[in-house]
Write a structure and sequence with these properties.
90% of the residues lie in helices and 0% in strands. It has one domain. By secondary structure, the protein is mainly alpha-helical. Helix 1 (2-50) packs antiparallel against helix 3. The protein contains three helices and no strands. The radius of gyration is 24 Å and the shape is rod-shaped.
Length: 88
């Protein structure tokens, strides 16, 4: 009978530590996701702020597809760098 209670204690202790580990990893993932989104938005703001032309006018009014492709490429590159930094 003592073997069964010892086994039950081990299972309960392992499940408790597994749940704690899960929530620890979930919290870290949420923090890194929010941090990555903030960095991406800062990058977008800096691109629009320091562009030598009005990005809104070029993309919306002049229908300049090249500006959209360049901005999307830069944001995709920054997103890949952020993802690689998070993964380690």
């Amino acid at each position: 009978m003592s073997n069964i209670s010892t086994l039950a204690q081990v299972v309960v202790e392992n499940s408790s530590s597994t749940v704690n580990l899960f929530f620890m990893h979930l919290t870290a993932a949420l923090i890194y996701s929010i941090l990555g989104i903030v960095i991406l938005l800062i990058t977008l703001y800096l691109m629009v702020r320091f562009a030598p032309f009005d990005v809104h006018k070029e993309m919306e009014e002049d229908q300049n597809t090249a500006v959209g492709i360049v901005m999307g490429s830069v944001l995709l590159g920054i997103a890949i760098i952020i993802a690689a930094a998070i993964v380690g």
